[in-house]
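User: Some background: our group keeps a shared notebook of sequences we're curious about, and every so often someone picks one and asks for a predicted structure to add to the entry. Today it's my turn. The entry only has the sequence so far, pasted here. Could you supply the structure so I can complete it?
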Amino acid sequence: MRTNVGVLCTPGRWGTSMKPRRAVKAASVALAALAGAQMLGACASTQLAAAAVTSRNRITISNLTAQVANLNTAYTADKKKKIQPQRPVGQETQQVLSWLLLFQVYDQMASQHNISVSHSELQAAQTQYQSQAEQSHVSLVQYWSAGGALPPSLLPELYRAGAIETALATKLNGGTRPTSTAEQQAVQLKLTRQQCLAAKSLNINVNPQYGVYNYNGFSVVMAPSTLAADPTPSPAPSALRRTPPC
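Assistant: Of course. Here's the predicted structure to add to the notebook entry:
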């Protein structure tokens, strides 16, 4: 029976080069050019090894590859239990990279609002997610791998993001947890704006081979094809937004 589960170099745009400062004497020009070439080579090699670069950190290709492998291992285990992935198959790289960037966005929100989470708050977040999984009659790992394309190795990051969101929601609601529907809706709008501002401040740059960052869904998607004769439909959403709306 099939089970359905709900659920660094200076940061800049890819291809940006660094030019050595002009010197007065010919010897200085030569030295500056040599130094500039070395710096450019180092920067290029760094960005070539990066899946994405933000003002907080860079996500290496090796890390992304390892996390995608972890997700695929979870998918294999899920399928043995007749649990099918609920996210589009074949886009695992973009899905995992989206999570890695989203966790940086939450860390940025925590930094911007002076939020630090305690061990008990992390445990509370884990307990909440565990409860959601039990309601769907699956394990926590199955719930988030099949339902959210989240590698099991990133579950601790998920707990931290959940604890940050809870703390920030309380802060945005005047220091109390939002309980009524009206409060929850109002706080959700505020949270979305803060998430947008945090993502904007990170200056997110995705390696083009993996796609582009879509601020509408805070996710990485394949860029729409620019070839008029390309018959392959693009997986990117029609409402792709490459610049923050906030």
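Suggested note for the entry: The radius of gyration is 21 Å. Residues 55-221 form one domain.
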